[in-house]
Amino acid sequence: MSKTIRKPLVTLDKLSKYFPLRTSVLSIFGGRGKFIRAVDNVTMDILEGEILALVGESGSGKTTLGKLLVKLHEPTSGKIFFDGKDVTHIKDKEELRWFRRNVQMVFQDPFESLNPRMTVYDLIAEPLKIHKLIKTEDEASDMVNEVLEAVGLTPPKEFIMRYPHQLSGGQRQRVAIARALILNPKFIVADEPISMLDASIRAGILNLILDLREQRNITIMYITHDIATARHVSDRIAVMYRGQIVEFGDTDEVISDPLHPYTEALIAAVPNPDPDVKRSEIPIKEPQTQLLYEGCRFRDRCPKATEKCSGEIPEVNVGNRRVRCILYS
């Protein structure tokens, strides 16, 4: 994996997304209700040509952050910059069209994200027609065949007239990746792209992601709950818990020497195939509440928690990493 220092392609500045939680009749009729802070004050850069892994357990806010980056959600506060432009609230149609061409998303379940009534050819050619990037059907056919070969669906003629239900899980995900690639985007958000696949074909999709990055210099945010696969594909890792980034840094450094107790717990949960290796267990507790938004979000589960953890926990730099933990503040 390349370690070349590159400029940021995507910058998040104190980005937040809150969802209202209706807990009473009063809140339904306009009263002040509580909020789920799905993404809370996230600040980070994603560099050109890198694969950034966003890891965390289910419900940590990973997918919501990914949808904010591709503008499927509007942020509650904060800013998003893409390729040097503020794209937080794009109003101009031409600017939005430019953004859609350059930012794509691969969803977790390809069977849900692919229209079952469309053939593989129609699914992949549709973005070209929407963005008016082709003049003839022959031109579209050439581009579809080229991208199918790029994602390993060869020969293309064996697949272009099939429907999603006629494909295996791995083939469907490759079609989803091909549809994202057809516009030649600069940035792709891959939301758990292998979680719905059999273990036997996961490695193929991961290697495809690595190959596409090397061949096309595409910047990728790889969202996953599996820190083992994140280690395989990513240059840097952002660990997310209850809407906040609790640790962020180089993949090898984070895996070999985790700073935050939550990161330690994630790494300890990865199975080791060597029966002679003794696993170190982190005695974390069950979460007490989903609405713990003051102080450290992890303190109700953390074995190292103290009274200080209920106060303000700023992000601090530790070497080349950022961590949000009272132990380093």
Describe this entry's structure for a reader:
By secondary structure, the chain is of the alpha/beta class. The chain has a single domain (8-296, 304-323), classed as Rossmann fold (3-Layer(aba) Sandwich). The chain is 31% helix and 23% strand. It has helices at residues 25-28, 62-69, 93-102, 110-113, 120-130, 137-150, 169-181, 199-216, 227-233, 251-256, 261-268; strands at 8-21, 34-47, 51-55, 77-82, 85-86, 103-106, 187-191, 219-224, 236-241, 244-250, 316-318, 321-323. The protein has an 8-stranded mixed sheet with strand order 6-7-8-3-9-10-12-11, sandwiched between helices. Strands 2-1-4-5 form a 4-stranded antiparallel sheet. Helix 5 crosses helix 6, helix 5 (120-130) runs parallel beside helix 7 (169-181) and helix 6 packs across helix 7 (169-181). The longest helix is centred in the middle third of the chain and has 18 residues, at 199-216. The mean pLDDT is 89.
Beta content comes to 15-25%
Number of structurally distinct domains: 1
Secondary-structure element string: EHEEHEEHEHHHHEHEHEEHHEE
**CATH fold descriptor:** Rossmann fold
Main beta sheet strand tally, sense and closure: 8 strands, mixed
Assign the CATH superfamily: P-loop containing nucleotide triphosphate hydrolases
Structural class: alpha/beta
Number of helices: 11
Layout of helices and strands, plus pairs?
Layout: E1 8-21, H1 25-28, E2 34-47, E3 51-55, H2 62-69, E4 77-82, E5 85-86, H3 93-102, E6 103-106, H4 110-113, H5 120-130, H6 137-150, H7 169-181, E7 187-191, H8 199-216, E8 219-224, H9 227-233, E9 236-241, E10 244-250, H10 251-256, H11 261-268, E11 316-318, E12 321-323
Parallel strand pairs: 3-8, 3-9, 6-7, 7-8
Antiparallel strand pairs: 1-2, 1-4, 4-5, 9-10, 10-12, 11-12
Helix pairs in contact: 5-6, 5-7, 6-7
